[in-house]
Amino acid sequence: MKLVYGVKDRPKTGQLILFALQQLLAILAATIAVPMMVGGNAGIEMSNSAALFGAGVGTIVYLLFTKFKSPVFLGSSFAFIGSMSAAFAGGVSMSLGYLGLLIGAVFAGIVYVIISLIVKFAGVKWIDKIMPAVVIGPTVALIGLSLAGSAIAQATSAASNGNAYIMNTNSILCLICAIVTLAVTVVCSVYGKKLMKMIPFIIGILAGYVLAAIFTGFSYIEGAEAMRIIDFTKFSALSEGSAWYPDFAFIEAFKGGYDAGTGTIGAYVGTIAVAYIPVAFVVFAEHLADHKNISSIIETDLLKEPGLHRTLLGDGVGSIAGAFFGGCPNTTYGESVGCVAISGNASIVTILTTAVMAIVISFIAPFTIFLSTIPSCVMGGVCIALYGFIAVSGLKMIQKVDLNDNRNLFVVSVILITGVGGLALAFGKVTLTSVACSLILGILTNLLVNIKGKKDKNADEPVQLTIEDAAEPAEGVAETSAPEKTEEEERNEEIR
Question: Which tens digit of pLDDT belongs to each residue from 239-253?
Answer without folding.
Answer: 776 667 788 888 888
